[in-house]
Write a structure and sequence with these properties.
- The protein is α+β, with helices and mostly antiparallel strands.
- The protein has a single domain, classed as (Glycosyl)asparaginase (Glutamine Phosphoribosylpyrophosphate, subunit 1, domain 1), CATH 3.60.20.30.
- The chain is built from 8 helices and 15 strands.
- Strands 4-3-2-8-7-1-13-14 form an 8-stranded mixed β-sheet.
- A hairpin with a 3-residue loop joins strand 9 and strand 10.
- The longest helix is centred in the first third of the chain and has 20 residues.
- The radius of gyration is 18 Å and the shape is globular.
- The two termini are 16 Å apart.
- 56% of the residues are buried.
Length: 331
């Protein structure tokens, strides 16, 4: 089986000036992860590696660069599902770790496979993970700007970037005082933040992983879809990772719905199209990426933009040029 790969870095409103920079980062990560698959890595190992790379990139709302909750704390969630075993594992609202996906991966071999904040913190200590602060200057400034406005927005920005007058942008969390980025409320980038990876390996095995910093500014204790089968699901037939407004994804049970439709006999294209059409009728704001056992790659969205990139075994492509919604595509 020719390996296949698709990743995402969030979904939402128009990226405006940040499209090229986001595409560059997504393409670099796809290249690195696909190289692992070509070298014989399992789908699960590739998904973990891809999530680590996305979590390490401060541009995306997962790991480093995660948004702040209403009390100015970073709490992250992640999950991993291996299609062959149909084994789901995840952590919810974990803090002070570099890669939440590592905890989800560890839990694959445990009897208790989904842990919330205190349990996840104990697990991080058990794994002897170093304490890590994922906070960036941009996320602090974003939170402070919202505090001045008494948290009128329902969520924070997902793509951390500064669009400068010279046409360049920045995502390292520094030099964020030029007043041209999304924290001033005038140039908001995509707002629905999650990262995700779905992979098919040489042996025809599928895995899916999803990680997020949440929607930002939320009530303390809020749980996203990213550590639920609603947002991340895989079987031997197909795997899906979702992004968007978590509550909308949960209400649609989107990832599980798409995969189950494939298991029940729909093609991946039919399953994604039908599920996205239903979500659009229900006025949801979301997106999904998917791969099935035949090697078909698909994505769909009701939001304006889905930040996704893929490798189909021959070339790299992405979904960033598509700005209409709802929309889906199969490669």
């Amino acid at each position: 089986m020719q390996p296949k790969l698709i990743i995402h870095g969030g979904a939402g409103s128009s990226l405006k000036g940040g499209r090229a920079a986001v595409a560059h980062d997504l393409h670099e990560i796809v290249t690195a992860v696909y190289r692992k698959l070509q070298g014989g890595a399992t789908a699960t190992a590739a998904v973990i590696y891809g999530c680590q790379l996305l979590e390490a990139n401060p541009r995306f709302n997962a790991g480093k660069g995660s948004v702040l909750q209403s009390d100015a704390q970073v709490r992250m969630s992640a999950s991993l599902m291996e299609g062959a075993s149909q084994r789901f594992s995840g952590v919810i609202n974990v803090s002070r770790v570099e890669h939440p996906i590592d905890l989800a991966a560890f839990l694959q071999t445990c009897d208790d496979r989904v842990l919330s904040d205190y349990g996840a913190a104990d697990l991080a200590r058990e794994m002897r993970l170093p304490i890590y602060d994922p906070l960036t200057d941009l996320r602090i400034q974003e939170w402070m700007a919202e505090r001045v406005d008494n948290f009128q927005k329902s969520m924070a920005g997902v793509v951390a970037e500064t669009a400068r007058a010279d046409g360049t942008d920045q995502a390292d969390g520094t030099d964020q005082t030029d007043g041209t980025n999304q924290i001033d409320g005038k140039d908001q980038a995509a707002r629905r933040g999650t990262i995700g990876v779905v992979a098919l390996d040489y042996n025809g095995q599928i895995a899916a992983g999803t990680s997020t910093g949440g929607k930002g500014l939320e009530r303390i204790g809020r749980v996203s879809d990213s550590a639920m089968p609603a947002g991340n699901y895989a079987t031997p037939e197909a795997g899906v990772s979702c992004t968007g407004i978590g509550e909308d994804i949960i209400d649609e049970s989107l990832a599980a719905k798409i995969v189950i439709r494939v298991v029940d006999g729909m093609t991946l294209t039919q399953a994604v199209d039908k599920s996205i059409d239903e979500a659009a009728r229900n006025q949801r704001d979301l997106g999904a990426i998917a791969i099935d056992k035949t090697g078909a790659i698909a994505w769909g969205k009701t939001s304006e933009v889905l930040l996704a990139a893929y490798h189909d075994g021959t070339q790299i492509g992405d979904s960033l040029a598509a700005s209409t919604s709802p929309q889906s595509a199969t490669i």
